[in-house]
Design a protein that fits this description.
Oligomer: single chain
Shape: elongated
Order of helices and strands: HHHHHHHH
Radius of gyration: 17 Å
Largest sheet: none
Number of helices: 8
Number of strands: 0
Distance between the termini: 34 Å
């Protein structure tokens, strides 16, 4: 695994700066979809449980950078959306109209719940900007989603770190993070499977 995809390496090497920049890029820049989001937050919680990071500062940092990341993604979509969808291979222009119809019905919950699904949380704000979703509604759901995600995942890592003995955590931290990484992709796999079956 490249070092910039290793949550433990990012935290040990860049500390809070690494967490903030990674979360901003993963939630706001289309090319950041491959960065570790959930696993980084979980690992930060584990480090906080060991006393290497301040949990409350981690949470505040994540909520702020996740909010700003999505806001950045919204503006990218608003200004460059058509160009992005015409040049990025895995994004098709017809997705815009599909997204518009979907956001009209499920936009609010998608922005909130999409935070917990890798790749989706990177694409959703850009899609919202591309279809010119109401800014006020976007900002509100952006804030709610950033708060729920930025609080719950680090807290889960923190409590897991408090439950597991330190020697076990030190020895198997990569295994724990790897399991969470795999589990976080289950919703994506299920949705892709559902669409393939429907076709």
């Amino acid at each position: 695994m490249p070092s910039f995809l290793d949550p433990e390496y990012l935290i040990k090497t860049f500390s809070y700066l690494g967490i903030g920049l990674t979360i901003f890029a993963e939630t706001g820049l289309l090319l950041g979809f491959f960065l570790p989001g959930d696993t980084l937050l979980l690992t930060a919680g584990l480090f906080a449980a060991r006393g290497d990071l301040n949990l409350w500062f981690v949470i505040a940092l994540v909520v702020v950078t996740a909010f700003l990341g999505n806001w950045s993604g919204y503006h990218i979509g608003q200004r460059f959306g058509p160009m992005v969808f015409s040049r990025v291979k895995f994004l098709k222009p017809e997705y815009v109209e599909q997204a518009r119809e979907y956001f009209n019905s499920h936009g609010n919950q998608t922005l909130v719940l999409g935070r917990f699904v890798p790749i989706i949380r990177t694409l959703v704000p850009t899609m919202a900007g591309t279809i010119k979703m109401d800014r006020g509604i976007f900002q509100l759901t952006n804030l709610i989603g950033a708060a729920l995600w930025g609080i719950s995942i680090p807290m889960a890592g923190y409590f897991l770190g408090k439950v597991l003995p330190k020697e076990v955590l030190d020895k198997y931290i990569l295994v724990v993070v790897g399991v969470i990484f795999v589990l976080s992709f289950i919703p994506v796999a299920l949705e892709l499977s559902k669409r393939r079956t429907a076709k």
